[in-house]
Sequence to fold (130 residues):
Amino acid sequence: MNVTEFLKKLPAALIPDAVDGIEGTVQLNISTPTYVTLKDGVCTVQEGTCDTAEVALTVSDENLVALLTGKLNGPLAFMTGKLQIEGDLMLAKDIPGYFDSKSWLKSPLPLIGTNHEPHFWCSRPKRVCR
Fold:
């Protein structure tokens, strides 16, 4: 499974209460540019670029999956250059909290690359990643 197939699982992992009142578009600059739109408690994922996105994230496919599954700390990824953010930093900071990472763990995760770095702490408080 590639990262694009993984991202197509985002709508099913959305936590509707977490996005109540949230509207925005996130441009993901990955191997296949993709954008995610959050509006009216619904998430849609489209391949391509959105010129009006509130925030753009530039990240490797592998690190994007790690961020969304809670295996890579967002602020640490940003400070170490693994993640570049352009636009609304607050929206970018909140993205992992909009999705239930446990729903991804029920299905096989994509095998992207081979250089998996161990990350023991999530960006979520009081939670240890395994």
The helical segments are 3-7, 10-13, 61-68, 74-79, 89-94, 101-105. The first helix runs from residue 3 to 7. The two ends are 21 Å apart (CA to CA).
